[in-house]
Write a structure and sequence with these properties.
Oligomer: heterodimer
Largest interface: A-B, 23 and 22 residues
Number of helices of chain B: 0
Number of strands of chain A: 11
Helix content of chain B: under 10%
Structural class of chain A: mainly beta
Order of helices and strands of chain B: EEEEEEEEEEE
Shape of chain B: globular
Structural class of chain B: mainly beta
Shape of chain A: globular
Largest sheet of chain B: 6 strands, mixed
Chain lengths: 116, 110
């Protein structure tokens, strides 16, 4: 079974530029998450989708971050404009979801963003 | 707001020794996860603990959950170098929303 795919793996941009990350979850997984992991810290949830609807985006900085999950499969996370403090690894995860009672989240390899 | 605290944050130990990592959390939850992260890599799921008193073991690692004490432990038996990594606990605060601890960076020396 293929895992969670993310691209690009690395991105370097200047502050005030925009950037987009892509995630393809495990086939059949209804729930998709985006996390931000700053160096030396645990991942912090940014947004959670159930199919193509947003379940929780309370920690997403909506003035600069946006995310969508069209057709309930792939997802993109965008930052516009980027700030220095956005330098982090952005992790995508997916799970089968509440309906199945199986909550384990599987993580992708992440995108390491450096803002200069 | 749910707070998750791990200790120690850094742990250097010798091969063959036993040690325990602790994960405390501030509000009620009956679902807790342990993950492993190698440098530059993503998170690998180790254990899912779903109820009070749950205990799971895989090789030299054993995890337990005490929901009344709001405490989980990850015990390492006879450590080997391959277990060097950062270990995270994560607590489900409801609707599958995980709050992670700060992580414990474990270094096992020959």
């Amino acid at each position: 079974e293929a895992g969670v795919a993310q691209s690009p793996r690395y991105k370097i941009i200047e502050k005030r530029q925009s950037v987009a990350f892509w995630c393809n979850p495990i086939s059949g997984h209804a729930t998709l998450y985006w996390y931000q992991q700053i160096l030396g810290q645990g991942p912090k949830l940014l947004i959670q989708f159930q199919n193509n609807g947003v379940v929780d985006d309370s920690q997403l900085p909506k003035d600069r971050f946006s995310a969508e999950r069209l057709k309930g499969v792939d997802s993109t996370l965008k930052i516009q404009p980027a700030k220095l403090e956005d330098s982090a690894v952005y992790l995508c995860a997916s799970s089968l979801g509440q309906r199945t009672g199986l909550y384990e989240q599987y993580f992708g390899p992440g995108t390491r963003l450096t803002v200069t | 707001e749910l707070k998750v605290e791990q200790n120690p944050l850094f742990l250097s130990m010798q091969e063959g020794k036993n040690y325990t990592i602790y994960c405390n959390y501030s509000t009620t939850s009956d679902r807790l996860y342990w993950y492993r992260q190698d440098p530059g890599k993503s998170l690998e799921s180790l254990f899912v603990l779903l109820s009070n008193g749950a205990v799971k073991q895989e090789g030299r690692l054993m995890a337990s959950l005490d929901t009344k004490a709001r405490l989980s432990t990850l015990h390492i038996t006879a450590a080997v170098h391959d277990l060097s990594a950062t270990y995270f606990c994560a607590v489900d605060q409801g609707a599958q929303k995980l709050v992670f601890g700060q992580g414990t960076r474990l270094t096992i020396n020959p």
